[in-house]
Amino acid sequence: MERVDAIVVGAGIAGASAAYALAEHLSVALVEREAIAGYHTTGRSAALYTESYEKGPVQLLTLASSGFLRRPPDGFTTEPLLSPLPVLYVATEAQRATLDRIVTDVAGRTELRSVEGDELATLCPALRRDRIVAGLLEPAAHEIDVHALHQGFLRGARRRGATIWLDAPVVAIGRTSGRWHVRAGERSFAAEVIVDAAGAWADEVAAMAGVTPIGLTPMRRTAFTFDPEGHDLTGWPIVVDADERFYFKPEVGQLMGSLAEETPIEPCDVRPEEIDVALAIERITRATDFEIRTVRRTWAGLRTFAPDRLPVVGAEPSVAGFFWLAGQGGYGIMTSPAMAQLTAALVADHELPPELAEVRAAVSPSRLR
Ligand SMILES: Cc1cc2nc3c(=O)[nH]c(=O)nc-3n(C[C@H](O)[C@H](O)[C@H](O)COP(=O)(O)OP(=O)(O)OC[C@H]3O[C@@H](n4cnc5c(N)ncnc54)[C@H](O)[C@@H]3O)c2cc1C
What is the position in ligand 1's atom list of the atom closest to the CA of 169? Predict the structure, then answer.
């Protein structure tokens, strides 16, 4: 039996970042059911860093992550974690009011600028001018190198002494004499604290520990890639429908498209639905001159939400030593540095920096009890 201060369940971006941050103060074991860390949602995202996509606490967590993503600690990675990828929200005549709402929601925390006419056409020449009449540009958004970020967290956690176990599904959790006993595959662990970073399965892991589920809902989102059909994608932004009914973004010589749907589904190794790809193609082709005759690759991922759509980060009020790090929805990559820092400070009982103290109550599981 391995004895540790903290066992982290799930080696997606949430668990990997938490193990990295916790291992600075505590002995840590990170356990993952799959043979590959990042096999589920973390490996299936759109990899975007945007300060305008969410408001309130999520926006604050995004802003609090920006320093780490822009200037990671020495030795964390050899790759830059961010590369420029502006976000362009686009609107038909009927959607103009939605653009105004986005500006209000962002409330001056990041630069957004209206674009129309020729500038819209220059930013994305594929847009149909008879249909898309207005846009809103977030020039300082970025694409995240998710692989480099995730591997940086895993490598850094190991360097700080954490042990990482793949093919190690947590199947039983018990508590005796104030200590957790966790069986993960062939291995057993004793720990003071469990950090539940099991993504779509976080409620299932909580139930194993005798903790009342928080009411998380995994939602399927489908994505696919297609050819740019003669367009040179250099400098293109990610183009997002103002009501988020589709988006497409440049991705190494291809375009990635999505219906941006949210379909509730049980936790699983989720697959794309053909109908969602077809609907996305219909919406994208209505807004652009693309024909999309060939789809290269399709996939789907689970974005998991708490009932109020805010992340759940903090100690379970009813059960000592159980810590939630769940409900990362559609922003778990870009907020991971701040959420991990918050987790480590709360678990190790350290003082929070002001920007995290501000969001602590809003993301605490106590709000849902
Ligand atoms: C199409 C799409 C686009 C997205 N775009 C963005 C974006 O642009 N920017 C952004 O920031 N976010 C984006 N997201 C959201 C982001 O990907 C997620 O918020 C994030 O990956 C969640 O990470 P996680 O570690 O919580 O979950 P996961 O990556 O799913 O990790 C959870 C892990 O827990 C493991 N696990 C579960 N149960 C057990 C058990 N019993 N024992 C051991 N291990 C277990 C699982 O195997 C899994 O590996 C997007 C998501 C999708 C699907």
Answer: 42
Measured by CA distance, the residue closest to atom 12 of ligand 1 is: 331
| Shortest-distance Cα residue to atom 4 of ligand 1 | 45
Task: Encode pLDDT of 274-309 as tens digits.
Answer: 999 999 999 999 999 999 999 999 999 999 999 999
pTM for this one?
0.98
Q: How far is the CA of 105 from the centre of ligand 1 (A)?
A: 26
Which tens digits make up the pLDDT trace of 33-56? 999 999 999 999 999 999 998 889
Do 160 and 131 fall into the same domain?
no
167 shares its domain with 290: no
151 shares its domain with 65: yes
Which of 303, 305, 336, 343 is the best mutation target for the ligand 1 pocket, counting ligand atoms within 8 Å of the beta carbon and taking the most? 303
**Residue-range definition of the domain harbouring residue 168:** 2-74+145-215+307-368
- Statement to judge: residues 157 and 64 lie in one domain: yes
Report the separation in Å between the CA atom of 24 and the middle of ligand 1, taken as the mean of its atom positions: 23
- Among 263, 333, 363, which residue has the most ligand 1 atoms within 8 Å of its CB, making it the best to mutate? 333
Find the residues whose C-beta lies inside 6 A of ligand 1: 9-15, 31-34, 39-42, 44-48, 169-170, 197-201, 205, 221, 223, 258, 301, 303, 328-334
SS3 readout for the chain? CEEEEEEEECCCHHHHHHHHHHCCCCCEEEECCCCCCCCCHHHHCCCEECCCCCCHHHHHHHHHHHHHHHCCCCCCCCCCCEEECCEEEEECHHHHHHHHHHHHHHCCCCCCEEECHHHHHHHCCCECCCCCCEEEEECCCEEECHHHHHHHHHHHHHHCCCEEECCCCEEEEEEECCEEEEEECCEEEEEEEEEECCHHHHHHHHHHCCCCCCCCEEEEEEEEEECCCCCCCCCCCEEEECCCCCEEEEECCEEEEECCCCEECCCCCCCCCHHHHHHHHHHHHHHECCCCCCEEEEEEEEEEECCCCCCEEEECCCCCCEEEEECCCCCCCCCHHHHHHHHHHHHCCCCCCHHHHCCHHHHCHHHHC
For residues 68-91, give the mean pLDDT. Answer: 97
